[in-house]
Amino acid sequence: MNVQKSANAPIKGAVNTDLRHDSAIKHVTGRAEYCDDIAEPIGTLHAYLGLSTKAHALLRDVDLSAVRAAPGVVGVLTADDIPGVNDVSPTGRNDEPIFATEKVEFWGQPMFAVVAETRDAARRAAKLAQVTYEDLPHALDPEAAQEAGMGYVTPPLTLKRGEAESAMSKAAHRIKGKLRVGGQDHMYLEGHIAFAIPGEDDDVIVHSSTQHPSEAQHMVAHVLGVPSNAVTINVRRMGGGFGGKETQMNLFCSVAAVAAKKWNRGVKIRPDRDDDMSATGKRHDFVIDYEVGFDDDGVIEAVTGDFAARCGFSSDLSGPVTDRALFHADNAYYYPNVLLNSHPMKTNTVSNTAFRGFGGPQGVIAAERIMEEIAYHRGLDSLEVRKRNFYGDNGRDVTPYHQTVEDNIAPRICQELEDSADYRARRQAILEWNAKGGTIRKGIALTPVKFGISFTATWYNQAGALLHIYSDGSVHLNHGGTEMGQGLNTKIAQIVADELQVDFDMIKITKTTTEKVPNTSATAASSGSDLNGMAARDAARQIKERLVAFAAEHWKTDADAVRFLPNAVQVGDEIMSSRDFIKQAYMARVHLSAAGFYKTPKIHWDRETGQGRPFYYYAYGAACSEVSVDTLTGEYRVERTDILHDVGKSLNPILDVGQVEGAFIQGMGWLTTEELWWDAQGQLRTHAPSTYKIPLASDRPRIFNTNLAAWSENKEHTIKRSKAVGEPPFMLGISVFEALSHAVASIADYRECPRLDAPATPERVLMAVERLKG
User: Fold this and answer.
1) Exposure winner among 182, 185, 402, 506, fewest CB in 10 A?
2) Which of the following is catalytic: 727, 738, 752, 763?
3) Is residue 727 annotated as part of the catalytic site, yes or no?
4) Is the pTM of this model over 0.90?
5) What is the pLDDT of residues 674-719, one digit of tens each?
6) How far apart are CA 684 and CA 678, in angstroms?
7) Are strands 204-208 and 231-235 parallel, antiparallel or unpaired?
8) Handedness of CA 694, 698, 702, 703 (dihedral sign)
9) Cis amide prior to 759 (ω within 30 degrees)
């Protein structure tokens, strides 16, 4: 190899360049290995959960004799078989049993697990239990829970700034309203799965599809009654997660581990999609009561809001989710006087959990409804109302939680999108079209998003990485993040390649495992690249410092004379390949391994006072969507969507565009087609793809333009000045919801807000049309 020539050519796969996902070809050819693809040791058993068929009832008798006698059954696990604690509550509230004992609190709650020679045998046997219930009253939604006095699953939060009530009373105009926002199932392609292999002493290895290996480790240890060092959690990749595998996998990991240790055989558990959807949590649905006071120009003077959430039977992550809904209830707008309250209601449904956006979407949609209300009240374009209420300077820059918005680029993002999407001319054309009074009505909306980045639980804002350079120059990288299809591993490898100035192909990232990087945080809150990228860079820099010191000593020169070039190292006038240099360093006994670490600076949060800086920075974006609605049926289609999104200085633009587009479609699905429905007895009836409609390829906008704000660069010192991309663009789907509202509002000549509830299914759209006709 010509070292001089190589040193002049850029490395392959550097940051800030497009690079295909490292597993893309494996994904499309079916060669990507998931948890269910791991070769099973001889004697592997299979577990299956026995679920309740009542929403709230005392367990008078649970007869499992037929289950135990079924063909292929090895045994049954109940709460009595748990050696440690019968609880997998992620918050330590001891309110989420693995197996119900005296009563069940939602339809689909696990009561026992069957362990059999085959999965089919376990699945069939689980249906043979004879359970005698004594029914208790149940409440299934936030309003019913409030009426029944069910109480909270976790303490509520209040955010307050200014004097909202007095400012409201003095406002020239006031509007009160109620918005119902539905939940959402994660619908990951790969369902929940855990595969436990027992070891000697207390040891157990669990292969799992989880976003939070360290939490799964602690939960399994908690349930087994052993220290965490006896439990290893391995995650190679997930077939999607979206938050649904942050805490929900604790149940499956624990059941598999208990069974594996009890029978000293490998045990795998993988529920059917129907049971997966029934027994695991979803996005919280909310009922939001709001009031806004504003002046003649539509400028807000006061906002109050009460956010009641269906949390389910236990706390899970409902505390931080409902907190975050309040954090984002301002979206990109300044509220001079504001009072917001959360109401995390206990309900007799599965305990809801994390989902992409983590409460943020429910807060943002409330802010957008308020803008819409003001616009129709004042006869204004809703985009004009948004602009008048944007955060700004001169005191208009403090959030309801008292954080100053220091990098407000929402106005620029929206203005650039307004121009590039030709919003003004298209809106005028739509108004003229609707004025003709035909069956097909059109609507258009341009909505922004401002999304805070960081875990609001401050201690989660840390990450670790382990980096080895072998004597042949190849690099082994491990970090605490998990790969669920978002391209995290690709980005982290690019960061290390860039730092060491070697080709991307020289970096190998192995499975996430608690054996290598301890005490990791969940891959959630859009923090995967921010945290793990910094930790990996720290590890690389530690090794580089040792290499520079070695080179300076060995070649008798100054440290400044040592330069890392593309696939080469220059020491003074001498240039050698990276491999040759590493070989010499190894021979000189240079330590070529490092553990990196990072913690997010500047953030702090006092929940008691509702004040602090919970977010390190904000990511911004905007979407303009146009729809057509058939007013005879309520059916609609998205004609065009234009997106401009801020990811700072992108680590990998092509992956980021994919994340933006995917988030938009998922957000659109949440607000249009994805409807969760429980019957009066508390059974989830939308429990499979046959009854729960996620967006199809045919539902995408007919014209779909997505661009990144190429000029943006994070003002904070993030990894390569990038910004998070996982969650913020999810809220861009609200533009479709608002466009549907605009089309429906034309029925009454835009005189009133249609007040669509979400999801805006064709039925709801049609009912809104008929209501406005009346």
Assistant:
1) 402
2) 727
3) yes
4) yes
5) 999 999 999 999 999 999 999 999 999 999 999 999 999 999 999 9
6) 4
7) parallel
8) positive
9) yes
